[in-house]
Structure formats: structure tokens, C-alpha cells
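Run folding on both entries below.
>entry_1
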Amino acid sequence: MSSENPYHVTEATIQEPPTSFWQRMKYVGPGFILSASIVGSGELIATTLVGAKAGFVLMWFIIFSCMVKVAVQLEFGKHAISSGESTMESLNSLPGPRLGKANWSIWTWLVLMSAKMLQVGGIVGGVVLALVHFFPFLAQPTPQACALLIVAASVSLLVYRGYYTLIEKASLLMIGAFTLFTIASLVALQFTEFAITGSDLASGLLPSIPKETALLLIAMGAFGITGVGGDEIMAYNYWLIEKGYARFTGPRQDTAEWERRAKGWIRVMYWDAIMAMVAYTFMTVMFYLLGAAILNRQGMVPAGDQVINTLGNMYTDTLGPWARSLYILGAIVVLYSTLFAALAAWTRMFADAFGRIGLYDFKDPKARGRAIAIAAWIIPAIWAVLYMVMQDAALMVIIGGLATVVILLIVVLAALYFRYFRLDPRLRPAPWYDAWLWLSSIAIFLVAIIVLYDSVYNPLRELLQTAGGGAS
């Protein structure tokens, strides 16, 4: 039945969009699932490290990077609502070569996700490393391997049934928990020698371009890790569809009624995305401030795996042993939320991609549910095994981050294609929206080129030069 299948849009599923603020609030939620994923390892570890390296001077850029990319997310969401298409179904409509039934973009995504597996495997390792504080015996190889598998299995248990409502509520609960944790951390900070002053905040909010090349590269890297990434944007369509936005809009028709419903539900989506952006921007800035206030003032830039312990030690020195335990407990919640939200999204994206390749019918609710359940058990097991093999969370996150940059380029290309070649003319946006979309697209493209040049081309060139020198 279509009422039980959010991916099947019929006239029987039509529902008028809410018109008042409080009615709209009943339908927000998809964006907060993204927030649970966004405010995870990237913000806790990477953003804190950016603050440690740059001090307060790049805070304005962190805020900019969170806000500017939302335009691409909105374009993806608008396409899902008006067409009823899932992300992979939409990508399958892009121009370009095909291999079998699937478009080049789907095959490219599948290849890149093998590198992304390393990134989330590093996060599984991060959870276990944090648990060592409470259970020291987990530092031993055998108990640690068991803990990795248990963490992976616990995420599978939460996700394998695939219920949207459970995922949304759990995400909101985790967001609330680490919001309180972060606020408590900053309040506690004000009673230490690392207290943040008004002049610190003013220097961070005043836009300025660092003259040092190293800080410029840090800023570019920060752009890639803060706010919505390519995988979060791709995941957003599934949450919109499963919340009912596309079903409520109904099949596309040349009627004033359909136009009114489409614009109404797109407006609800705008509220959802903007509210989520405010939430994760707030959290990102809080983590950045912790890094700038504590680590930068100490001249400390620890390795990625050591950020949690280092910050925990800072609180121990100033507030007592209890503060370190509280901080690490909060860090576990933050990292685990990333695993939870990432798995919920990945199961749908992989199930959808395999459906487009032709392995089964993604639109069949029973077959889709079975594919999601299988993926929910296999993917976390791969994460855990990858960490057991590599044992380097920082390197794993970096490798996955490079794949994220390329995925983001595919997402930008798709968003522009949806806007100019597939958008219903009746839903054409205002000029300011198009300007925002182009600003977002150009910024993402330029940063991607810089990051790939610095992180792929330069190391490869140095490696070849070293090899050539050794041969001579």
C-alpha cells in the first residue's frame, strides 16, 4: 500500500501543507537527522583542531561554511518533493555514460564509498578509544576488538528495522544530549584561566583573510568538514521522502492545486533545513571555541586521536577529575550519534544504488526493507574490521575526507542540473536564491580543487620526486 510505502506517490497520499508556524513545526525532523551526523567526529575532532591551529581568527569562516552549502541541500530537497524521486533515482537521470542500467555518477559513488568506509571505521575506533577512559582493559587488543564489534552491532540493532520515526527521535535525543554537554563545557570554561572574552569573539566574527599560507589551507579544510557534506545532502532526500513530503505533494500535475501543495511542502522543507542549520552551526562554533580557547592558547595541536583526551585533561587541571569524565562521556555520545545517523543514511543509499544497478526493485517495500536490514548488519562490521586492520583513526578519517570532496562535486553538478533542466517552471525560485546556489556551488568547487591539490597532487608529486631521487 502506498500509505505504507513513502517511495510510492499517488493521489491517495495527497495532504495539504501546513500554513501556520506551529503546524509546520510538526513536520520538521529530516534536517535534525542530518544534524546528528554533521555534529559528530567532524565537529568534535576536526573543528576543535582548526580552532587549536588558527585561534579565534577563522570563526567567521566556520559560520560561513555552515551557511553557504545549504543552498545545494535545498535544491536536492526541492527536487525530491516535486518529483518523488530518491537520490539515486535522481542521479540516474544525469547526462553522461552508463554501465548497464546505472549512470556513471552511481558507479563513481560506489567506488568512493569504499574510501568513506575508512572514515567511519575511524569513528568506531574513536568511540572505543573514548570508552578506554571508563574501562581501561579495553586498551588490550582482544578486548578492544570485542568492543569494536559490540559498538558496531549496537548501531545495527538500532537501524536494521529501518523505522523513520525511531531514527528521527533518537537523533533528536542525541542532539539534545550533546547540546547540553557543549553548553556545560563552555560555561565551565568561563571559570578557568581559558575563559573567552568579548574581544576574542569580536576578533573571530570580523571577516579577515589570513596571510599565512598554512592558515589558508586550514580554512579550506575547515570548509570541507563543517556543515553539510556531500553524503549528508544525498541522505536528506530519503528523510524528506520518508517523512512524507513527496507523498503529501502528490504526483506532478499541471494544476494550480499541485503547484500550491508543492510550494507549501517546499516551504516546510525550508524551515526544516534552516532550523537544522542553526542547530549544527551553533554546535560547530561551540567546538571551535573550545579548541581556540584551550588548545591554541597552550600552543597545543595534538594528533586527531588525542583531542578528546587532551581536552579532557585540560578540564581535569582546572575543574577536577569529574570534569574529564563528563567531557569524555559527552564525546562518546557525539561520536556515536555520527555512527547512528551515518548508518541510517548509508543503508538507504546503498540499497537504492544496488536497486538502480538492477539487483532488485527498490520501489518494492518488502525488498527494500530486506536490503536495508542486510546493509545495516554488513556495513558496521566492515567499519569495525577496517579499524582493527589499520588502527589509525586520524588517517582513516583523512582518507575518507578526500572521498567526501569528490562526492560533493558530484552533488553540486546534480543540483545545478536539477535546477536548470528538471525543475518545474512553476517552482522557479527568486533571483537571490539562484545567487545563493551559485555562490555555494562555486565555493564548493574552488575549495575542492584546493583541497585535492594540497592533499593529493602535492603528496603524490613529492612521492614521485623522492622515488626518482632514490633511483638516481
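>entry_2
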Amino acid sequence: MDDTTGFDSTLPASLFGSIIPKLVSVLEHTQRSDGAVSPQAKQALLQATNEFKNTLAQARGYAGSLRGGELNSQEQDELIVMLEKLKDHKRQELLQFAQRVEYLSSVSTQDAVAKIEVDSTASTPS
């Protein structure tokens, strides 16, 4: 299908599931030891590339025709509240991480200072 208006609103999982295997096929053709030297190898690479491009174009068409953005005001408010909670949670995690890094940094500095003091004491003649 070349026209995205004719796409069904449901996504065909098999179409999207075949993108990666077709990309792998193209890569395998390009990585073979004989390369794309022979006419048969060139033809196989061309066919694999065209299949990948066609599948990708179909997938883009389906993805582009998806409906979205149709939340009512209550759903939008719920989404905003959920995202704000997520933001606050991430901010708290970041703060805890920063505190741990600061603590570990200070512990490492104290250990380094103590080691230098021990080294200098050990090397000082009596």
C-alpha cells in the first residue's frame, strides 16, 4: 500500500516484527566474505535492500496514520498529575544519588589523605 489513508487503524505486528530480520539480511549480504562481487551477490543484496526499504515504508505509513491526542480534559489532568509525580520521584532519586556520590567522594578523599599520612609517616626517618 502506497497510500497511508488506506491503512487500517490496527498495526500489523508481523510487519513491524519483520523490519529487524530484513535489516539483518541486508547486513549479512554486505558482510559476506565474497562481498557483492558476483552478479548473483549484487542481485541478492539489491533484493534484500529493496525488501527492507519497502517494509520500512509500509511501517512508516502505518505509524503515521495512527490516531492520537484525543484525551478529554479529565484524562489530561490525570496524565499531568502522573507526570508530575514521576518528575518528583525522579528528582528525589537524583538527589539521593547526588548525596551518595558526595559521600563516596568525601570518603575517598579521607582515605587518600589517611594513606598519604601513613606513607609519609612510614618514610620519615626516626
